[in-house]
Amino acid sequence: MKYESREKDIMKINICKSLYYLFVILTVALIFVLPVKPALAGCQLNIFIKNTGNASLEVNNEYSGGYHTSVKIKFGKWKDLRAGDWFFYEDGLELDPTGKMGDVFRGDFNCGAKRRYKFRYSCQGGDNRGRSFTDYYPSSTGWTKQQSVTVNLESCQ
Questions:
Q1: Please, which of 47, 78, 101, 119 could form a disulfide with 70 given CB 3.0 to 4.6 Å?
Q2: Could you tell me which residue, 75 or 39, shows the higher pLDDT?
Q3: Residue 153, SS3?
Q4: So where are the chain's domains?
């Protein structure tokens, strides 16, 4: 009788151990499968562009290693806005005079980081037809912590 009781106890212990190991394995697997981001990492920013010139323009939104539409944090490198899902499916963004469009950019750093934005665009009409320009926000040397920005593109006349 004692032998059967001890055997049942060992079976119960083995079942508990097996369930524990299964729980640990599933927990570790979920850590690698589910996307988990730290609370302070990343920020959603609203970035708008507005054509304040008199002629249509096209903003180049192709991947470029930070050459076209990009953002830079202070002491960092230029990063394509498209890499942060800003107009992810658009290579070129066309804007008529007074036209405005915007999208959410998912930034890598916290919302308080100082940023500078860069936009390369070409004029589709007017005196500057075919010419390309680069505009910065807030300027080519300034920084902003604003989470919603409107960049005026004004060179297409």
A1: 78
A2: 75
A3: strand
A4: 1-36, 43-153
Closest C-alpha to 68, from 42, 37, 91 = 91
The Cα diameter of the chain in Å comes to 102
Q: What is the dihedral of CA 7, 13, 14, 19, to 10 degrees?
A: 150
pLDDT score for 4:
66
Residues 102 and 114: beta-carbon distance below 8 Å: no
Task: Output the CATH code of domain 43-153.
Answer: 2.60.40
Contact 19, 52 (CB under 8 A): no
pLDDT at 5 over 90: no
29 is written with which tokens?
């697997």
Here the tokens at position 9 are 């106890």
Residues 70-96 have pLDDT tens digits of 999 999 999 999 888 899 888 889 999
Residue (of 147, 120, 132, 153) closest to 49 by Cα position: 153
Written as six digits, the tokens of 73 are 């944090």
